[in-house]
Amino acid sequence: MQPGDSVTLQCSVHTETCAGEHSVYWFRQASGESLPGIIYTHGNRSDQCERSSGAGSPTQSCVYKLPKRNLSRSDAGTYYCAVATCGEILFGNGTVLDIAENDYKMQVGVLVLLSVIRTGVLLCMLLICVSVCIEHCRVTESPGCSGSDTGCCITVLLFDSDSEEK
Predict the structure, then answer these.
(1) InterPro entries, per this entry (predicted)?
(2) Among candidates 13, 154, 160, which has minimal Cα distance to 80?
(3) What does the pLDDT look like over 9-19, one tens digit per residue?
(4) What is the pLDDT of residues 99-135, one digit of tens each?
(5) Which helix (H) or strand (E) holds 111?
(6) 75 in Cβ contact with 97 (< 8 Å)
(7) In terms of Cα–Cα distance, which of 74, 73, 57, 66 is closest to 16?
């Protein structure tokens, strides 16, 4: 799951039918916590159950849902449901809810790194061009240039893709 997403956790309980009501509790155990903490109770509920009469004793199947909206990193953990019914408490196996890291910080870091690399490459190219121009000026003496006249050593590079060999 991503931050900002929504999810509905589901707890299904299959028991023998009894006259009592169900009390449903939801727990969340975050990573690093030794004990889960209670986060939600449904109170006395039996309206989400379907009864079935088959061979043997009658049974019922109940489904309880816990909607979670606008998820954040603090919602990550293992969610458990517990249902108190017919004089006993039934615990679910747990559902792990992972919230992915927001990739925004990583994307900004990559963009900054690429900008630094691009700037470095451009500076290297500029230094190489200046070095080549200065070396060229030293090797070939232009008319009207003296060895100490560095203002004369200016080279303009023009690239024309349409030019033909002559």
Answers:
(1) Ig-like_dom, Ig-like_dom_sf, Ig-like_fold, Ig_sub, Ig_V-set, TCR_complex_component
(2) 13
(3) 988 877 777 76
(4) 887 666 777 888 899 999 999 999 999 999 888 888 8
(5) helix 104-139
(6) yes
(7) 57
